[in-house]
Amino acid sequence: MGLWLTAPLFLWILLGVGCATRPGVTWQRYEFERPQMGLPFRMVLYTTDGQAATNAAEAAWKRIAELNSILSDYLEQSELSRLSRTAGSGRAIPVGQDLWRVLVRSEKMSRASDGTFDVTVGPLVQLWRRARRQRALPEPDRITAARAAVNWRWIELESRARSVRLVTPGMRLDLGAIAKGYALDEALAVLRHRGVSRALVSGGGDMVVGGPPPGELGWKVAVAPLDVLGAPPPRTVWLRWTALCTSGDVFQHVEIGGVRYSHIVDPRTGVGLTDHSLVTVIARRAVTADALSTAVSVLGPIAGIELVERMRSADALLVRPAESEGEQSFQTAETAGFRRWERRR
Fold it and tell me: Which DSSP letter does residue 9 get?
């Protein structure tokens, strides 16, 4: 996990930029871009009032910035960082509504994925961030020490008091594989509250969409292929009132000793993934798609797709290189329902 600073796994919005009309109504397309959470964020809005679009976008930007100040593990004074510093103290710490919601959702995903999604992976993520900077593998004893503080079951949630206890000393929470999805959902909710329902909000390789552009049945989005020569061409999907998130090592990895290590760390081994894959998940909410895309990356094609199938409300596509009789080939795995998103509905 640890996707906070992931560069974009490009998603292309293929609709035109003109306006659409119906009797008495003229829709206009407005686009806004701003760096948020260490990533380029983008909004595409259709409204009949330019000032309303600007005001709604500003409110959504404010909400995303607020969530970053709460959920970021990079900011020393974020609510998340302050909570991490209480690890092992024995105290249950009251937390705000946003952090509580994300931690509750994280616990459910950890349980469903048998711990392959784990927000306590922070100590390991720290080691691998340093490994990418220094281009040197973490020492085995340091990985062992970090793993001793990683276990999602050591987060105790007390719902009555809305408080959190981190049981083991040295625990450090990293919400990089779920917080961005939560922020996207919240940004779309702000836009809807401001009367802008035909909207798309994206951050890096993740996006959430509301109602479709005027005159269209959905947002037409092409998911870019792997960065490998001969990789399968982009798949195109049509989205409305749903989210799409991607996970992979296309932009964040390090090659050491001829091995390519991902920024995504397997909490079971403490090692960055060496399975060069690209995972795309479509779900009703971005917070779900974000977390699932990381869990599928860790689990791999068979167990990962089985996990998404069990969720029932999501679909997934995984593409990775595969060796076939000494020649480069590619393995594709997808849920039974993924192809329905490729039909213009």
Answer: -
Contact 85, 97 (CB under 8 A): no
Match 């020649």 to its residue by tokens. 327
DSSP 207-227: EEE-SPPTT-SSEEEEEP--S
Q: Which residue has the tokens 């083991």?
A: 168
Does domain 73-166 fall under CATH 1.10.4160.10? My reply is no
The mean per-residue pLDDT over the stretch 77-85 comes to 98
Q: What is the pLDDT, as a whole number, of residue 239?
A: 97
Mean pLDDT, residues 109-126 taken together: 97
The architecture of the domain spanning 11-15+29-70+178-342 is Roll (3.10)
CA distance 126 to 123: 5
pLDDT tens digits, one per residue of 127-143: 988 888 888 999 999 99
* Tokens at 153, concatenated: 């079951």
What backbone phi and psi angles, to 5 degrees, belong to 80?
-65, -45
- The domain spans of the chain are 11-15+29-70+178-342, 73-166
Question: DSSP character for 4?
Answer: T
